[in-house]
Amino acid sequence: MSDEDFAQLRDFIYNHCGMYFHYAKKYFLESRIGRRMDATGIRTHMDYYRLLNSTRGAEELKCLMDVITTNETFFFRNVPQLNALETKLLPEIVETKNRMGVRKLRIWSAASSSGEEAYTLSMVLLEKRAGLLKDWIIEIIGTDINETVIAQAKDGVYGAYSVRNIPDLYRRKYIREEGDRFILSPDVKRFVSFNKLNLYDESKMIVMKSFDIIFCANVLIYFDKTSKSRVVQHFHDNLHPYGYLFVGQSESLHGVNGKFRTVHFPGGFTYKK
Ligand SMILES: C[S@@+](CC[C@H](N)C(=O)[O-])C[C@H]1O[C@@H](n2cnc3c(N)ncnc32)[C@H](O)[C@@H]1O
Fold first, then answer.
1. What is the rounded CA–CA span in Å between residue 10 and residue 4?
2. Is the shortest distance between the CB of 142 and ligand 1 below 6 Å?
3. With contact defined as beta carbons under 8 Å apart, do 105 and 137 qualify?
4. What is the mean predicted confidence (pLDDT) over 173-195?
């Protein structure tokens, strides 16, 4: 791929989804685009770029997103975050909402990949149904740009790699093992729904309103500062004043959005407006 073709395709992808491929990632992008060129029978990068801009472009773009996104995820990926949520942050939100007379909890797993993060939260909250969250309505929404992982999330069937970190208590209660497949119980799936959503699509982002908690972990690392800022501003708009925004363990909003303040807990931190 020539440097010119690389720049043209990189900018096209950036403008669509906010992911920015630095020059060091040129060979990664070339090989992934190469797969789509093989699949569509297209021989030059310029013709592939033309396909993306044609009437068949939207369909091809879906396939391109499937091959260029990194979907690595697993259950109970960030235990310190979950501990803080369970012991401190959730009771605090519940107390605030109780005072307001609202018994509904809305959580967004933004860039949920195949659903492990959203279902982890569902398991943790299910354990609170007898006490803290008795009679509460729980709504967990998982979204991702990649339609293949969204379909997997809806299925709720996983491999050994994904479930390896699930504590025994949860595993016994909420997972059924069938050969090498691990199947989620309907109880866990009941609170969770999944939809395709591009975090860089303004028209979709403005309707994701009124969340108590937003998780956006391990995705903004693929964005540049400008696209990160745009997405994080939407999270700011979409989150209640008493809510929390969680990012990945090695991520930070430093220099991205000054409107959030850091709240520390043992083993990590989260963000509040
Ligand atoms: C590494 S996974 C993170 C999954 C999960 N949040 C976690 O931390 O385990 C990153 C996900 O971000 C999604 N993604 C990348 N760009 C996106 C965009 N513009 N809008 C929505 N999802 C996006 C990818 O499809 C991928 O599934």
1. 10
2. no
3. yes
4. 97
Q: Which of 79, 113, 215 to mutate to test the pocket of ligand 1 (most atoms within 8 A of CB)?
A: 113
Q: Indicate if the pLDDT at residue 144 is higher than 90.
A: yes
Output the residue whose Cα is nearest ligand 1's atom 13: 111
Distance from Cα 112 to the centre of ligand 1, integer Å: 6
In the reported structure, the alpha carbon of residue 149 is separated from the centroid of ligand 1 by a whole-number distance in angstroms of: 10
CATH ID of 79-272, from 3.40.50.150, 3.40.50.1000, 3.40.50.200, 3.30.460.10:
3.40.50.150
Q: What is the bridge-based pairing of β-strands 192-196 and 211-216?
A: unpaired
* CATH label, 3-68, candidates 1.10.155, 3.30.1450, 2.40.50, 1.10.1200: 1.10.155
pLDDT digits (tens, 9 = 90+) for 251-269: 999 999 889 999 999 999 9
Question: What pLDDT does residue 178 have?
Answer: 97
The domain locations on the chain are: 3-68, 79-272
State pTM to two decimals.
0.97
Report CA Rg, the chain.
20
Tell how far the Cα of 69 is from the centroid of ligand 1, in angstroms: 7
Determine the pLDDT at residue 257: 86
Q: Say what the pLDDT of residue 207 is.
A: 94
Distance between start and end Cα atoms, the chain? 44
Q: Quote the CA–CA distance of 165 and 78 in Å, as a whole number.
A: 10
Taking residues 91-114, report their average pLDDT.
98
